[in-house]
């Protein structure tokens, strides 16, 4: 049945299915965490925990990613629910930039992948924190609206 298909198509199909199978558990983890946030974390709790200072909120958003073992694809529903609950956009974006990089699962796999040395994982954390702080601070400084939050509620 598949004998008439070119090898490159079969190889592409195999890679596509492999990526889907690899990403599915992380997307499910992200959706479950997002559901947990939606059901059990109140707006008042988030308002109490999140600093009012914009730049301090970016720092907190950047650092809280260490608690969420999720990948890039699983972090999007988490951030969407956090922003809908009242997390400022600049803190949510900083969180989204660091969480897939500084979580313990990724740090350990990077440690193992680079010959059991902490140099590369620490540089990876430092780089992601720098990027998240710069981007989050830029959003905090230049973006003053609540347009994204309004769009989230409209969906």
Tell me about this structure.
With 155 residues, the protein is mostly helical. The protein has one domain (7-154). 78% of the residues lie in helices and 0% in strands. It has 8 helices and no strands. The protein has helices at 7-40, 43-49, 54-63, 72-85, 89-102, 104-113, 119-142, 147-154. α1 runs parallel beside α4, α3 (54-63) packs antiparallel against α7 and α6 crosses α7. The chain is globular and about 60 Å long. 26% of the residues are buried. The mean pLDDT is 83.
Keywords:
155 residues
Report a brief summary of the structure:
With 155 residues, the chain is mainly alpha-helical.
Helix-residue proportion: over 70%
Give the helix/strand class. mainly alpha
Q: Could you tell me the number of beta strands?
A: 0
Instruction: List the domain count as a whole number.
Output: 1
Q: How far do the termini sit from each other?
A: 43 Å
β-strand amount: under 5%
């Amino acid at each position: 049945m598949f004998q008439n298909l070119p090898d490159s198509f079969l190889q592409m199909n195999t890679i596509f299915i492999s990526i889907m199978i690899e990403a599915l558990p992380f997307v499910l983890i992200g959706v479950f965490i997002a559901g947990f946030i939606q059901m059990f974390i109140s707006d008042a709790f988030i308002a109490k925990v999140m600093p009012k200072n914009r730049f301090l909120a970016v720092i907190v958003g950047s650092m809280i990613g260490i608690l969420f073992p999720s990948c890039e694809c699983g972090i999007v529903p988490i951030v969407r629910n956090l922003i809908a609950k009242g997390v400022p956009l600049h803190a949510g974006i900083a969180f989204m930039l660091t969480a897939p990089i500084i979580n313990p699962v990724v740090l350990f796999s990077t440690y193992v992948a680079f010959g059991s040395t902490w140099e590369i994982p620490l540089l990876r954390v430092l780089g992601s924190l720098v990027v998240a702080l710069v981007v989050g601070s830029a959003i905090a400084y230049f973006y003053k609206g609540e347009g994204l939050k309004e769009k989230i509620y409209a969906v």
